[in-house]
Specification:
By secondary structure, the chain is α+β, with helices and mostly antiparallel strands. Helices cover about 25% and strands about 45% of the residues. The protein is globular, with a radius of gyration of 14 Å.
Length: about 110
């Protein structure tokens, strides 16, 4: 996480397939802003990693009085194991290096 509120969460599960947690995680990440009055728009997409792997990404763009927040949640799983990835950009008005950090994370991610 950066001081400005941009960050990445990576959770590894050894005895549980986290794929069913994507919607719940996105809802938990965004509920406080939605309750405050932010308008939520979903823009789900597929991301191809440099390693050739492809992941489905749930994306929420929140807007309130010209301020934007961006949340993305993705999983990669096998039988009874996997990873859950969440990225967030909560302050869009200044560059604290967070966006570059997230892009570097995605660029170098290699899911085994």
């Amino acid at each position: 996480m950066t001081a400005g509120g941009t960050g990445v969460i990576l959770q590894k599960y050894d005895n549980f397939d986290p794929s069913m947690m994507k919607e719940m995680m996105l809802s938990e990440l965004t509920k406080e802003s939605v309750n405050y009055g932010y308008k939520l728009v979903r823009e789900d997409y597929k991301r191809k990693l440099d390693s050739g792997q492809e992941v489905n990404v749930l994306r929420a763009v929140l807007e309130y009085k010209g301020e934007y927040e961006y949340y993305e949640v993705s999983t990669s799983s096998k039988k009874d194991e996997g990873i859950l990835i969440a990225t967030m950009i909560t302050v869009d008005e200044f560059d604290d290096g967070g966006k570059e950090m997230i892009e570097l994370f995605w660029k170098t991610l290699n899911i085994l």
